[in-house]
From TrEMBL, chain B:
Residues of the 4Fe-4S ferredoxin-type domain: 43-73, 169-200, 201-230
Cofactor comment: Binds 4 [4Fe-4S] clusters per subunit.
Protein name: 4Fe-4S dicluster domain-containing protein
The species this protein was found in: Goekera deserti
Transmembrane segments: 331-352
Cofactor(s) demanded: [4Fe-4S] cluster
Location(s) in or outside the cell: Cell envelope
One example of a Gene Ontology biological process annotation: cellular respiration
Gene Ontology MF term list: 4 iron, 4 sulfur cluster binding; metal ion binding
Length: 196, 355, 878
């Protein structure tokens, strides 16, 4: 194997990347700063700088409504931090808001439909479309079971078979569709955390 | 190559007395560490504990950014459990906790009439509080202090002790962090060059260099730097070195809701802290003090310094930290000789592989 | 506030740095107390006495902002001769029916101006009605006295205003008439002296006076004081009256509608305000329109009758309603078919959450959706919740993480006690994973009524979907399954406008299209600019009238993001606030009756004579060109009936109500009642607790008797900064779990000594509902209080975040809680109850219910033993 200038060049590069070499030849003889920089240090880059895009959002925890910036790289969220533009929060977040990335990327998140049959002792899997169809059937069945044309002689046109709880953590648009759909199906026992 | 192998890593030729590199004031830590004169200004943290609300956003923001492992802390570090120490379940700074909010509950009796509310110094007669410094929570002597910053819990009786007289509660909170010392013993003792001084004047561990020797751990006068059990290497606050390269603030300072943690050029932070101290003292908070601000202290001043409302020990901070490498020059010769020997060996090995 | 809204608290800290005094009134010394100027420890459940004491301080010392009070409140109105105060009836107002527990409001009415020159004419229901449909309104008011209507919570529909008044009251502008509101109020609160406050609240007179002085000295022309509250004021059997007390005080001090003033509710969920405005609530339609009641509202005319002739913006209720119906049923809604008003199901009483749970326990409710809510941990009486879940046919849970309410069939404590058996629970459970805030787009409405649009960052993983997706596709499938049905009951579903555009592989409906529907569209097909454009002739749509304008000019106004640093402090170009982007409600009150700012220092909105319009830092919450000296012509309706010096434009008289002649189930003025569970007797009246209190009598919901030695301690529940509500969004996350890793309770050193509790050790807490165990934190921050006669009361603090799932687990505080409710809003009293506390861990297995039953027996409480499977009916008689 020959060892031409290329090989020597590689040696030089290798030596330059070696802190002790730089330490002894550069202006940092104690090897505490410039001469001690490692390859990883030289290549350090902030995840905020390499993100593909930054999306403006709002914290999902309490109702202060702090602005968030969500950094996305390769369709994955790599950082969520306060949005300095927000006149509400001025870029700051509390511990919960600061944990938003963990919330979204949590390994314990349930990401598939889980089904527990009556009297079963364990969860099983269920296809999303099948689950939606089964739920629709059950809604129609419960709606029929609980249907009341009148109550005390007064027309009510409602079902007491379907109840719902939740909304305070959802979007306005979602609450709107919920109330609209429930009302159209005749369900009235619709509640959320605002009552609690 | 002989230059390498024979060179003393010693100190002649630097144009500076050795001692100045290892303790005492050092106006340009980055320049001293070999960075070009146009290096960025030294940055730091000023943690104003008088406005800390103990929310721990700093702890979480730090962990999220630096993807630190979950800590088990509480001092025991082997299970996640309630510490029983007020609201502090982190316990201490460590390899996985680069910010730690301390919670200190204090109770004492105060003279009647009730301590004043409002801004002492602005409303004479009510603003000047006569407070006994009869500390009931512990025996540490404490200077008399007004209660301007602190809520008062006023009650004429104490069913526990049967005493009468008002009692005052104070709940101190303070977010601790690596001090990024002017003279950083961890850095000075590191035999591999894993610890280094950045162009921003901060002190950072390079994970690709650290071999887990652990010399730095006992060297730190604050007990900050720590080895990760399953990894062996040491970890601590980097002042978000990566974020600094993108022109951002460290994650903790970015999140801090009340600006208890302030990040910026150290000179500017010093001025801000001096002004804040003057304001508080003008309001009668006689025990307010800056910690780590003094460049003549045992570590040449800290890159991360604090405004405290009580003695440092109350917050778990050493009252008079001294860089453990004051005597390093004599030690260094031995270490350097060792390092030179290692260099020689490695090069020999390299050369030896030539065909 | 520092505990639960830390980032909002930055503004308090900034105000403090600029000289504001921060006073924290809380049973516990919290992280907020730590940085406040004053902390006032108060016995939990006694805030009406404390605030009432300040009101008395104001009225006794003539410290009110008199010009504001006379012009902008109903202080001058003359109350009818029939009214009798609690001071004369030992704790009851006139009109109480002990049989039903309800009040008849008739005796609370004002003397009216109808038939000018007459005196002594009281505005009894139906009297003096001067409106478009007097007979209809009269009939509505008569029906409103029906029990089923009262139980249906009609007053909450006035959430953005007040109930209609149909006649102008007689007034005495000198406030000297013995029956004018000012004098009635003064007499009512006269006994709320500093000494009484000390007896009831445990706050020393000196401390009370310090607060009262600070508040009054910081109010007036030049200064304003703000009150900030959260559920610490609402989670009571007198919660609505807590807020009323603060409203009276702030109105007397002139602190409403002005910068730096107000009563600010800090709400606890990202869009809990939105879910009240666009309500997933049984008694409301969008924009605080009431759900129609079967007895009152069989037609659109009936529905609108009570408001159709009213003064104030509720006078346009028919336009808001018709626009809503057109949004929902589109072309199918016509004038001929009452715009499909009959499609809306009718309510007949209380269908609120706890009542529905009781029906579930009784096996009456087949299906239940849980959407981002975890009642097994977060609701009062967790055991009751789980018995309810176990007696459903099916349950759909939509959440991010596995929660206790989904896994109850194997994780419920009742499985261990044997009260529930997994194999015998017939509930079919569908866990449908949800998308996070970063995986969908839409608006949250924050605590200041501000709508902020979120952009989608990434696609949701796996089967995770937005709730928009879930409900859109559920509706689509339901409609497909019903296609061709001739059953009239299916028409509302089949005629529903449900054609939202979709996009992407997941066929996600367009949230922006939904937001535009909420905004409403005019006859020209363009988005409405606001609710003033809404018509009652079917030519406009609008899904939530108060949100109309959020899509004005076909622009998503909620997505405006001009950086705050480029704006003034109002920051009007960030997001969009309802109504009409007004940031401070009733801000016309920031100017004097003549339209001039009360002071230069506090100027905000004022009348610009040259321009002929209102102007200022905010969008005026007033008709822009209505002169301050405008006097409405006789017979003017809706907003036209509001005078130029009447800032409270949603009220029928444009005034702030110090005295509420209607609209409250438990009295026209607040008065101190003890919590349902209290260690002491009411120091003011023979009536112990709210006489209108709502209870559910069943074995799973036994109450601790007042002053019981068996349950001698007071406890309160709360959140920690490090956790979120029932825990699904925090106990599942490592970085938050490790910060508060275990369920704990906080006790004073004195109580620890009394009961032998060790810091860091275990304690068992017992109520008539259950017993739970927790670690103990002994802290001086919990302080015993001394009440009347030297009685010492110990209070225990219990954060409520824990349950069986997640990384950090523990017993649930709410298992201790019973369900007793405020009669106005059906909100449970879970900021205060009583218990016992003992050192050590609780019994396991079947021994636990026996242990709890033993306490009940000793306290003389009926048995709480439940049959296996937990299916029981509500008892008819106590």
């Amino acid at each position: 194997m020959s060892h031409g200038s290329g090989s020597i060049g590689r040696v030089k590069t290798w030596l330059d990347s070696w802190p002790v070499f730089r330490q002894l030849t550069g202006p940092d003889p104690l090897g505490r700063g410039a001469a001690a920089r490692s390859k990883a240090t030289e290549q350090v880059v902030s995840r905020t700088a390499t993100a593909d895009r930054v999306v403006q959002s709002v914290c999902p925890y309490c109702a202060v409504g702090c602005g968030q910036r969500i950094f996305v790289k390769d369709e994955q969220i790599v950082q969520i931090e306060g949005d300095p533009d927000s006149p509400i929060s001025r870029g700051r977040l509390c511990p919960k808001g600061s944990a938003s990335k963990s919330l979204v990327t949590s390994p314990s998140r349930v990401t598939t439909v889980r089904y527990r049959a009556p009297h079963a002792t364990e969860w099983t899997d269920l296809d999303l479309d099948v689950a939606m169809d089964m739920i629709a059937d059950r809604v129609l069945d419960a709606r029929r079971k609980g249907w009341q044309d009148t109550d005390g002689g007064h027309p009510v046109n409602r079902t007491m078979g379907v109840a719902s709880l939740g909304g305070a953590t959802l979007d306005n648009e979602e609450n709107y569709l919920m109330k609209k759909l429930y009302s159209a199906m005749g369900a009235i026992q619709i509640e959320n955390q605002a009552r609690i | 190559m002989t230059t390498v192998s024979s060179a003393s890593p010693g100190l002649p030729g630097t144009g500076r007395p050795d001692g100045n590199r290892l303790f005492g004031p050092l106006p340009d830590v980055s320049g001293d560490a070999g960075y070009e004169p146009d290096h960025p200004a030294r940055v730091g943290f000023f943690t104003d504990t008088s406005v800390c609300i103990g929310c721990k956003a700093c702890e979480v923001a730090c962990k999220e950014w630096n993807t630190l492992p979950m800590d088990d802390a509480n001092g025991t570090r082997d299970q996640m459990a309630l510490s029983g120490m007020s609201y502090d379940n982190t316990g201490m700074l460590g390899a996985n906790s680069w910010r730690h909010v301390a919670f200190v509950e204090q109770v004492r009796t105060v003279d009647l009439p009730m301590p004043a509310v409002g801004l002492p110094g602005r409303s004479p007669g009510t603003g000047d509080v006569h407070a006994h410094d009869r500390v009931m929570a512990d025996d540490a002597p404490r200077a008399a202090q007004t209660s301007v910053l602190n809520a008062q819990s006023l009650s004429e009786f104490d069913p526990q002790t049967g005493q009468s007289g008002d009692r005052e509660i104070r709940w101190l909170m303070s977010s601790d962090v690596c001090k990024h010392c002017t003279h950083a013993a961890c850095l000075d003792v590191c035999p591999t060059g894993a610890l280094f001084r950045t162009e921003f004047g901060t002190v950072v561990v390079q994970g690709d260099i650290c071999n887990g020797c652990g010399y730095c751990v006992p060297a730190c006068p604050y007990g900050v730097i720590d080895q990760r059990k399953d990894d062996g290497r040491v970890f601590k606050c980097t002042m978000c070195y990566d974020r600094l390269t993108d022109g951002l603030q460290p994650a903790c300072a970015t999140a801090c809701p009340t600006q208890s943690i302030q990040f910026g050029d150290l000179d500017e932070l010093h001025a801000r802290a001096d002004a804040r101290l003057a304001t508080l003292q003008g309001q009668g908070v006689q025990t307010a003090r800056l910690y780590g601000r003094d460049e003549n202290d045992g570590v040449g001043g800290d890159g991360a310094f604090f405004l405290l409302l009580d003695e440092p020990e109350v917050y778990g901070l050493p009252p008079d930290p001294v860089v453990t490498t004051r005597d390093l020059p004599s030690m260094w010769k031995h270490a350097a000789a060792g390092a030179a020997m290692v260099v020689g060996v490695v090069l020999t090995a390299f050369v030896g592989r030539r065909p | 506030m520092a505990e639960c809204h830390p980032v909002g608290f930055q503004w308090v800290m900034e105000a403090k740095a600029r000289g504001a005094k921060v006073i924290h009134i809380d049973p516990r010394f919290t992280r907020t107390s730590a940085v406040s100027d004053v902390h006032v420890p108060i016995r939990v459940g006694t805030d009406i006495a404390f605030l009432g004491g300040i009101i008395n301080h104001v009225l006794s010392n003539d410290l009110d902002f008199r010009e504001y009070v006379v012009a902008y409140t109903n202080a001058a109105a003359i109350v009818g001769e029939d009214f009798v105060d609690t001071e004369d009836l030992d704790g009851l107002f006139s009109g109480f029916d002990p049989e039903t527990g309800h009040y008849d409001e008739a005796s609370w009415q004002f003397e009216s101006q109808v038939g000018s020159g007459e005196t002594g004419h009281t505005d009894r229901p139906g009297d003096g009605v001067d409106q478009d449909d007097p007979a209809g309104a009269q009939e509505q008011e008569r029906l409103a006295q029906d029990e089923s209507v009262k139980e249906a919570d009609p007053h909450q529909a006035f959430g953005s205003g007040g109930p209609p008044l149909h006649a102008k009251p007689l007034r005495d502008e000198t406030l000297q008439h013995p029956r004018c509101v000012f004098q009635v109020l003064k007499r009512h609160f006269a006994r709320y002296t500093p000494e009484i406050v000390a007896d009831i609240c445990g706050v020393e007179p000196e401390v009370f006076l310090e607060v009262a002085t600070a508040v009054t000295e910081n109010s007036g022309r030049e200064r304003t004081t703000a009150w900030v509250y959260s559920v610490g004021w609402t989670h009571h059997t007198v919660g609505a009256q807590y807020i009323r007390t603060a409203a009276i005080l702030q109105s007397l001090l002139g602190n409403m509608g002005r910068p730096g003033g107000g009563i600010l509710a800090l709400r606890g969920h990202a869009s809990i305000q939105g879910s009240t405005d666009v309500p997933t609530l049984f008694n409301l339609l969008p924009g605080y329109l009431p759900m129609p009641h079967a007895l009152q509202h069989q037609s659109l005319d009936d529905y609108c009758a009570e408001n159709s002739g009213a003064i104030g913006f509720w006078g346009n209720m028919r336009a808001y309603t018709v626009s809503l119906l057109k949004s929902w049923w589109g072309d199918a809604a016509t004038a001929e078919n009452d715009y499909c008003f009959g499609y809306i199901p009718k309510i007949t009483g209380d269908h609120s959450s706890y009542r529905t749970i009781a029906d579930m326990v009784a096996g009456k409710v087949p299906g239940y959706f849980l959407v981002g809510e975890n009642p097994a941990v977060g609701h009062a009486n967790g055991r009751m919740q789980r018995f309810g879940l176990a007696n459903l046919d099916w349950l759909v849970v939509r959440d991010l993480q596995m929660i206790e309410s989904a896994s109850f069939w194997k994780t419920a404590p009742e499985i261990e006690t044997g009260e529930l058996v997994t194999e015998e629970i017939g509930t079919e459970v569908f866990y449908m994973p949800a998308a996070t805030h970063a995986e969908k787009e839409g608006t949250f409405t924050n605590t200041q009524r501000l709508l902020q649009w979120r952009h989608q960052a990434v696609q949701p993983p796996g089967d995770c979907r937005s709730d928009l997706w879930f409900y859109f596709h559920l509706g689509r499938i339901l409609r497909e399954k019903l296609a061709g049905s001739t059953d009239p009951r299916d028409r509302p579903l089949l005629d529903l406008t449900w054609d939202y555009p979709t996009h992407g592989e997941q066929v996600e409906p367009s949230a922006e299209a939904v937001l535009r529907e909420i905004n409403g569209v005019g006859p020209d097909g363009r988005a409405l600019s606001g609710y003033m454009d809404m018509k009652d002739d079917g030519s406009t749509t609008g899904g939530c009238w108060i949100y109309s304008g959020v899509y004005a000019d076909e622009v998503n106004q909620a997505d405006r993001r001009r950086p705050g640093r480029e704006q003034d402090y109002v920051a009007a170009e960030w997001g969009w606030a309802w109504p009409y982007n007004r940031r401070t409600l009733y801000n016309r009150a920031s100017a004097d009756p003549a339209g001039k700012p009360w002071s230069e220092r506090k100027k905000y909105v004022w009348w610009d004579e040259a321009a002929g319009r209102w102007t200022g830092d905010d969008v005026p919450d007033f008709e822009a060109t209505k002169r301050p000296d405008h006097v409405p012509p006789p017979g003017a309706k809706a907003q036209a009936g509001i005078g130029g010096a009447d800032p409270f434009i949603m009220q029928g008289d444009g005034k702030a109500w110090l005295f509420a002649p209607k609209g409250l189930a438990d009295g026209p003025m607040p008065t101190h009642y003890e919590p349902a569970e209290s260690p002491v007797e009411n120091a003011l009246y023979g009536v112990q607790a709210n006489p209108g209190i709502e209870e559910i009598q069943a074995p799973y919901n036994r109450g601790n008797p007042p002053t019981s030695d068996v349950y001698p301690y007071v406890f309160t529940t709360y959140r920690l900064t490090e956790h979120h509500t029932a825990g699904a969004m925090s106990r599942t996350l490592p970085y938050l779990s490790e910060l508060q890793p275990e369920f704990f309770v906080e006790v004073s050193p004195a109580l620890a000594t009394e009961r032998g509790l060790d810091n860091g050790g275990w304690a068992t807490l017992i109520s008539a509902r259950s017993a739970i165990e927790a670690r103990v934190l002994v802290t001086e921050r919990m302080r015993p209080l001394r009440l009347k006669g030297g009685r010492v009361v110990h209070q225990i603090g219990i954060p409520y975040h824990w349950g069986a799932e997640g990384l950090s687990t523990g017993d649930s505080a709410n298992d201790l809680m019973g369900v007793v409710m405020d009669p106005n809003v059906h909100i449970q009293e879970f900021k205060v109850a009583t218990c016992d506390i003992r050192p050590g861990r609780r019994p396991r297995g079947a021994a636990l219910p026996e242990y709890v039953e033993g306490f009940r027996r000793r306290a003389g409480v009926r048995s709480g033993t439940m049959p296996i499977g937990g299916r029981v009916a509500v008892e008819e008689t106590p």
